[in-house]
Amino acid sequence: MKKILFLSIFVFSVAFLFAHNPAELVHGVNPEKSSIDWVGKKVTGKHTGTINIKSGELKHEDGRLSGGNFVIDMPSITVTDLEGGMKGKLEGHLKSPDFFDVANFTTAEFVITEVKGGGEAGKYNVTGDLTIKGKTHPVSFTASTNEDGSFGADITVDRTLYDVRYGSGKFFDGLGDKMIYDDFELSVNLVVE
User: What is the model's pTM?
Assistant: First the structure.
């Protein structure tokens, strides 16, 4: 009986160790301290702005980034390079169905699917699934992390993959200087709690 009890405890302990990885740490993202800055370019210039982080988490295994995700609060999109009526007009247009249709798609999300070492400490080659307007496509970029687990990355996104086609030369002819480039840039800074 003692042998069976000992064997049962041993098997349970081994199973627990394999099922629970104590080397993996999950850090919640602090939405108030985290940020996303965006840049959209057109033939005659560019616009800049911000979008808030709604939630997220970053996973680290043995001190290295191993996974995570973050959710973007799409109705929070703002323009930082304009003021007054022009600022309000562009923000309203970005929130409309021509662009991000925030009434129907209140969040966007990025989920990390693969992380590889980037060659130097704290640098990683990250691939993940970005979902905007209900459409999901893979995106790859270089990211960096700090000792506290915070995460920074510059991400280039082709908006047309997510049915954001307004002013795109791929879909509309004769736009001239009204053409808006398909790629936009996100500078993501995630601060962990």
Answer: 0.85
